[in-house]
Amino acid sequence: MCHTEPEGSNSKQRLTTWCSVLSVLGAALLAFQCEDQASSIENRSVQLIPMAVGNQWHYQSDLVDSIGNVIVSTNETIRIFGDTLVGSDLWFGFSSQGYRMNRHDGVWQLVPTPYLEFPMNIGDSVLQRNGLTYMRLISKGERITVPAGSFVCFAYTETNPRENNALVNRYYVAPSLGLVRREVYSVTSVHPYAIIQLLVFEIR
Description:
The protein has 2 domains: 1-44; 56-79 and 116-202, no CATH class.
């Protein structure tokens, strides 16, 4: 005796399949749009971190346990308090972070060392002037959501091969805004044990 499935069951299965296909296509389209937006940013004259006296960024710093629960939370404000000429170069003073300036190849510190190179190809890395740590671009056009909003970011990692990359810093930076989120991982951790994310900002 033949058994025939109700027509409604096939329709439901087809609907589920189409929903899955549309979901995948939607995610791919969103990723493409973010990558495209990142490329257009690189093709314009854009500063990775905007620098003007009075600019400030307010961050929340969380210490996190091995399963992602927040243990301790503190707040920190980074402010550009002034500027100074060194030769013909104008450097901007960041509270607790020394002096920086934007150049055609990225953000430099007064050491000088390229703190964040920009623009940069995915996979490229730069040895920092300390001779110890490498800054590598791992992603472009990554959308990161923090209390301050949702931003298309460039993702960098900072590692120290001499210490077997025991700590990995991951920076998410939005051009024309600055650091949006930072995560700190140990070599054995799945979750970051420290997270710094942007709460509010004031750019002049």
